[in-house]
Amino acid sequence: MNKENVLDIASAIKYYLCPSATPQAQSFGLDKYEGICPQDSFAVLSNEGWLTEKPPIRLDHYAVILCVKGSCTRRVGHFEFAVAPGTLHVVSPRHTSAYHQASDDLLLYIVLFRKDFMTNSFMKEAILEQLIDLDPYMPPCFHLQENFRHMKDIFLRMDREYRSANAFRVQMMKLQVVELLYEINRICEGGALQSQKYLSRQYQLVYRFRKMVEDDFLTIRTVQEYADRLHVTAKYLGEVVRNETGQSPLQLIHHQLYLEAQYLLSSTPYTIKEIADKLGFTTASHFSRFFKQYSGNNPSEFKINSCRCLTA
Description:
This protein is α+β, with helices and mostly antiparallel strands. Helix content is 48%, strand content 13%. It folds into two domains: 9-194, Jelly Rolls (Sandwich), CATH 2.60.120; 202-311, Arc Repressor Mutant, subunit A (Orthogonal Bundle), CATH 1.10.10. It contains twelve helices and eight strands. The longest helix has 26 residues, at 169-194. It starts with 8 loop residues before the first helix and ends with a helix. Keywords: DNA-binding, Transcription, Transcription regulation.
């Protein structure tokens, strides 16, 4: 039985919600302090009242997020990028994601939806997948520049419809999601045409390496094995990866392992020994030393603290 926890919309909202005695005012979307229906397949909300320094999670739905003010760093899959005013980013289902280094004034407008919200009697699944399947070579974060006001207007119109009791409100919100996705594709295509970085052989080698690490880090741990699969020398792979990322290939492998450990400790009922086995460590003590080197806490302390956040 798979004990890993992939969060639905209601669980994801509760996961980030700050357990404060004084609820924060909500200027956009739903009131997160009111009842959230577990069956909901769509939500419009802000990050107001959310904690952003939380362990990584995986979602069963899409998230489209507009940064209105403030900043943070976001990791989605193997990409890590800065979130700043005028940027929009997308999180796809089952990608491990996390926020960190969030500023106190961070304000995000967020649209969450499951695939079935769009495909049930509205849009063919193949068309939706074409719209939401973004360029894999590019980080799923877009600098809107002159498009920011237009994208913000779509979010605001969605917010007004979401809060209303008007007839056909669900159908209108589906149309607004389609508009949003087409605008994202337009921006994505324009960015790919303008950027030479994503066309370089070095960047594509690093992308392929990081994608392999994301997919195979549980079974492949050495730089040489990745280099062999990529048909380059380990020395060349190390030079290119360091030039592109500022880190060595081994550091990226270990960081992916650490992120998975965080996810398993915070989101599953596995024991420390089970997690150590799952991650390929020979002993639980070896795993504990590895984890403490990155987090400063041993896995048991981290698990207790993060699981307390999940049930708060």
